[in-house]
Design a protein that fits this description.
The chain has a four-stranded antiparallel beta sheet with strand order 5-6-8-7. A two-stranded antiparallel ribbon has the order 1-4. It is an alpha+beta fold and 188 residues long. It has one domain (3-184). Strand 2 and strand 3 form a beta hairpin. The protein contains seven helices and eight strands, in the order H-H-H-E-E-E-E-H-H-E-E-H-E-H-E.
Amino acid sequence: MTQQQIKDTQTRVGVTPDGFWGPRSIAACKAHLLKLMPKPNPWPATDQRSLQRFYGSPGDESRLVSLNVVGLGIQYEGTAVRSIRCHRNVAKSLELILCELVERRFSHVLKQFEGCYNNRNMRGGSLPSLHARGAAIDFMASTNGNQTAWPTRSTMPLEVMEIFARHGWVAAGAFWGRDGMHFQATRP
């Protein structure tokens, strides 16, 4: 993000807009997104036992559904996406989020869809990714990669994170400080 975009983000989360994204800005951003989340949060905790209970085993494709996204302008590498395979427990929530992204004119985000279901481990880890349960989605990887700091180098708009937060999803960029492309249906 530009210096001005960082200042605008700081203003939005309630801290002095000085352009420096440090501990106060990070804490304020997390608090801002947490306030938007439903109470109680509908998603499981991130420990493997909670995930197993709520989503089942990673790679269990019997729990996936094909979410029809025709007409939403979602693209993968320039090709229109007709459906997204996701866990049945997140399908309605994800549909509402995607429709709100269209409504709020975030087509540039939707045109850079990077995937949802992918039966794999977390990057650099031995535990299953939330993608392996169809409960995570990625957008705009080219400017919001796993090791790219958010918001100083990453470009994922806070407004997109707010839309996901209103449905209880975690925006990795804001909560982890990196991986701005990643959103997952778990508690923070």
